[in-house]
Design goal:
The complex is a heterodimer.
Chain A: E1 3-10, E2 31-35, E3 38-44, H1 53-67, E4 72-74, E5 79-81, H2 84-93, H3 95-105, E6 108-117, H4 119-129, H5 131-142, H6 148-180, E7 183-186, E8 195-202, H7 206-219, E9 223-231
Antiparallel strand pairs in A: 1-3, 1-4, 1-5, 2-3, 6-8, 6-9, 7-8
Chain B: H1 16-27, E1 36-37, H2 44-47, H3 57-69, H4 73-77, H5 83-92, H6 109-116, E2 127-130
Classes of the chains: A alpha+beta, B mainly alpha.
């Protein structure tokens, strides 16, 4: 029977407060495998494990519960060991590294911040700041929308201005969060956001961090900020 | 290139907040070479939650038309770039952006997680907050 691994903790970790179940259908009971001063939080691995939403949530749930009572290094979803002995071997082999990371992450949580533009608000802002674009827009509007060519000319300029604004705002968000977090990890540039930044925050400083993000949102009403956390420190394990 | 968040998954419990956490579960976290990794084939189901709109003729037209729809009355009379102005416009907009930014409109990712757990007792639940209560699909 292969072994699904959720995370790694110290042997002194008290374990989750409640009996947990993990991946699989029906969900498999969570247990620990000890090796030296470390434990791995594991369950049996289901035969046909796939990245289904339910199993992804189960992975996250186990880590959220276990992290509530002590430092845990969260695994990425989908790590399967051939058996418990192979887990023990990994714990022994990389004990020093794991213990160093557990010390560094003790009492800390991750918050993920994604920023995107509120489209209507950012267009307002761009037109308010740029008289030429405002004039073009008003001329188009007065002409019942304008010709295709006028629309394209305006649209191209607007898109360029929005992109400019995205860079400026990404920098604003980055700078603000850098000053508020113990460490940051910039996520992949991808679709749907202008900034995707994970922040490592002391658990007892979380309220202040959330308040700072709240303030950032108030100061930048054209930004839509999405804050997720507290989470296990996925982005800070390596 | 401009990216615009468009569609979010409508399947069970699907919120973009959920998506945002799953992205971390899938892309970050500790990887151990000695372990087999589950194939992520099929994970596009999650990834298509957000769609890229590449800067193109269509995008230009869309933005030009979005500008045409804007009410510029207050924009014309105010000095440019006043945050108050933007805030005011935003709040009075039809989309009902709330004043308190993050304070309201919490999206309930924790509820989605709770559905997936049999036992529920924890003092620190993941939270998801949004600055707007607006649904993404309204941007379509």
């Amino acid at each position: 029977m292969s072994t699904y691994v959720y995370g790694i903790a110290r042997r002194s970790h008290p374990g989750p407060a409640t009996e947990l179940v993990g991946v699989g259908n029906p969900p498999l009971p969570v247990r620990t495998v000890a090796g030296g001063e470390l434990i791995a939080i594991v369950s049996d691995a289901p035969e046909d494990l796939r990245p289904k939403r339910r199993d992804l949530l189960a992975h996250q749930n186990v880590l959220a519960e276990a992290s509530a009572s002590g430092a845990v290094l969260p695994m990425r979803f989908g790590g399967v060991s051939p058996d418990d002995d192979a887990v023990k071997a990994v714990l022994a082999e990389r004990a020093e590294h794991f213990e160093q990371r557990l010390t560094a992450l003790d009492g800390k949580v991750e918050y993920n911040v994604k920023a995107s533009h509120d489209e209507e608000a950012v267009l307002h802002r761009i037109l308010a700041e740029n008289a030429e674009l405002r004039a073009m827009s008003e001329a188009n509007k007065a002409a019942g929308g304008g010709t295709q060519e006028q629309k394209l000319r305006l649209g191209e300029r607007i898109v360029a201005a929005v992109q400019q604004r995205e860079l400026i705002d990404a920098d604003v968000v980055h700078r603000e969060l850098t000053g508020r977090a113990e460490a940051i990890s910039v996520g992949p540039e991808s679709t749907g956001w202008l900034a995707n930044i994970s922040c490592l925050v002391a658990r007892d400083g979380a309220d202040a961090f959330v308040a700072a993000v709240d303030q950032l949102a108030k100061d930048n009403p054209h930004l839509s900020l999405q804050l997720n956390g507290p989470l296990p420190p996925y982005s800070f394990v390596e | 290139m401009t990216v615009v968040p468009a569609q979010q998954s409508r399947s069970g419990g699907g919120t973009s907040g959920l998506y945002d956490v799953l992205e971390l579960v899938l892309d970050r976290g500790l990887v151990i070479d000695a372990f087999v990794r589950v194939s992520l084939v099929g994970i596009e189901i999650l990834k298509i939650d957000v769609r890229v709109v590449v800067a193109s003729v269509d995008t230009y037209l869309r933005f030009a038309e979005a500008c045409n729809r804007l009410d510029l009355e207050s924009g014309r009379n105010a000095s440019p770039g006043l945050p108050d102005l933007v805030g005011e416009i935003t709040e009075s907009g039809a989309r009902g952006k709330s004043k308190g930014a993050l304070s309201g409109a919490a999206q309930t990712i924790s509820e989605a997680f709770e559905k997936a757990r049999d036992e529920s007792s924890s003092e620190s639940r993941p939270r998801t907050r949004r600055t707007t209560s607006r649904k993404k699909e309204e941007q379509e």
